[in-house]
Every structure is written in C-alpha cells, then in structure tokens.
Amino acid sequence: MGPNNSATQTIRPYPRKAEESLMGRIKELTLTSGPYSPSCEVHHNAPALVFSAGGYTGNFFHDFNDGFIPLFITVNSLFRDQNIILVITNCKSWWSRKYAELLTRFSRHPIIDMDKETASHCFPSAIVGLISHGPMTVDPTLLPHPKTILDFHNFLESAYSQGNVTLSDKPFETLSHKPRARPQLVLVNRRGNVGRVILNQEELKQAAEDAGFDVTVFEPTHKTRLVDSFRLIHASHAILGVHGAALTHSLFLRPGSVLVQVVPIGTEWLCDTYFAKPAKKLGLKYMEYKIRAEESSLVEKYGKDDIVLKDPKAFVKGNWSNMHTYLKAQDVKLDIHSFQRYLRKAYKQAKRFMNKES
C-alpha cells in the first residue's frame, strides 16, 4: 500500500452474523489501515480483543452461547497467556457486574468499555470479533491446543471456586456442602407469562421428593449472583426443567450429574442441539421427557388433531416467527403418573453419583 493510501472496513463484532435484524443493533466499528494514526493518549503493552456484549445479551443462554463460550475459544486460539485487554462495546453496567469474576479469569487487565471512553487508546495489535464453533460447542479439532466444553466447565469452576469469591448470605439452602442422605435435585422454575411454565410444579416437586430427592426450586433472575447459582448447581446431583435459557446452568454440573430436560411440543431440535448434545460432552447423565399433546396447553387452543400439535415442522415451515407458538404460547402440565418412571431412573443415577462422590 502506498504512503498516501488507506483502507477502511466496518464490522459488528458479534457472532450471529446471519441475523440481519439483530446485527443492526450491534454497534458498528470502523477499522482503518493507512499512514494516519491519531495521537495516543493511553498506551497499552498488551493486545486488544474487541467484541460486543449487545445482541441477545441479557438472556442467560445467549450470554454463554454468543458470549463467553466464543470468548473462551478466541482466547485459547490466540491468547493462551491471557495477556490481552478486553475492549467491549454495548457493555451494560449490570452485565459487567454480574460476570465480573468470570471476566477477570479471561484477562489480567481491567476491561475497557469502549462506549464510555473519550481518550484514544493505542495497542500493539488488536483482534476484532469472537470465534464461534457452533451452538454450545467447543471443537477441539479447531483449536491449536485442543479444548472441549468440559474444559470450559473447568474454567467456570476455577472462576467460582471458594478461594476466589465471597459467598453472599446463602440465598439457596443447598449451598451447604455438608454430606446428605438424599440426592439434591434442582427444579428450574419459569414464572410469569414467558411460556414453557410447569403448571403443576408443586405436584411435580412432591413427586420428586417421593422418589427420594431433596428438592430446591431455582428461580434465577438478573439480580441472582452467579457465584450463588454456581454453588447451588455444582453441589447438586441433578437438574430438572423445561427447555429454556435457565438450563444453561447445566454447564455448572459436575460430570456424572443428571440433567432431565422436559421437551415441549415442537422444540425437539432445539432441545437436542442446545442441551442434549452438550450435556453428553460434559459427561452428564442426560434424560429427556417428550410431552404428549395432552400435556401441552396448546391442546386447549387448537385441539390435539390440529397441525400445530400433530406436525410442528409443517406448521413452522422454516419461519422462526412461527416457533413463538411453541416457545412463548405453550405451557406444560406433566402427567405425573407417566413422569414418575423418569424420576425413579433419575434418582438411581443421582444416588449412584452421590455415593461415588462421597
């Protein structure tokens, strides 16, 4: 390139490039190469890794699927010594607070919120954007030093181990690590008009207790400290919940633990891609319960012979907006008699794991 030439390129540093409407909400950055360089007000000796915390950030699943797992992959691909500076756009203050312990594990330097900076920063080099291997995936064949999703679990464990963080006032009774006679099951609850709510949750909780579990109902919110969530899940022996973002907490389970995913009508491929396959790679004992039409609230609106219940693929026809029927408008009322068999099997596996660990 000649001395008077320059080239520019724009980029939105977020992994979901195929979703145009979403990408439009990601702050666009302009990269310029050429002879001109602004005066540096802040000099850094470490390279920059620039990415966005926008998009679907705020949904717990996407925080990991589109954020921390790609960040883990990128760091282990290009910066194994972790001598990098995280430069973040669309960085909400609650997000940086919620994930503070985790962010400090990626880099020894304080993060830079690009949207709040007014000074010009200079770095020896920069990587803009994150590397993704696919849904909830760390592909060891694509890394110079092979890592898997289990290594990501170990990374989380190191971030939230007892020695690194301070517990709050024990919001969950099962944060105790005292020996227990019964396996601990975390029942993930969805509340409000969000879809995929278990309508007979108290009946389900009682059935799980009758099967032999100690049950803790888990209702995470934006205000729930992640260290508390990690301690609860990591100390448990099983998680049970309907397909949804909160099942991302299964990343915190120890290998050998049990994950029971309730699969609503029309969500089979989502359940398999985002939780079933990763669970097996995490070394979890995975079980799923596919509800029948009679257990879906959709049967009241459409009738069990309607295409919505009989042939979800034909109803959706590749149009994601049609999936809202299954994700937003569907609740479940489990047939406890049918589900008891799954609870007994989950209990046996959880009990075996508990005895092995103790």
UniProtKB/TrEMBL annotation:
<dbReference type="InterPro" id="IPR007657">
    <property type="entry name" value="Glycosyltransferase_61"/>
</dbReference>
<dbReference type="GO" id="GO:0016763">
    <property type="term" value="F:pentosyltransferase activity"/>
</dbReference>
<keyword id="KW-0325">Glycoprotein</keyword>
<dbReference type="InterPro" id="IPR049625">
    <property type="entry name" value="Glyco_transf_61_cat"/>
</dbReference>
<feature type="domain" description="Glycosyltransferase 61 catalytic">
    <location>
        <begin position="152"/>
        <end position="260"/>
    </location>
</feature>
<dbReference type="Pfam" id="PF04577">
    <property type="entry name" value="Glyco_transf_61"/>
</dbReference>
<dbReference type="GO" id="GO:0000139">
    <property type="term" value="C:Golgi membrane"/>
</dbReference>
<keyword id="KW-0328">Glycosyltransferase</keyword>
<protein>
    <recommendedName>
        <fullName>Glycosyltransferase 61 catalytic domain-containing protein</fullName>
    </recommendedName>
</protein>
<keyword id="KW-0808">Transferase</keyword>
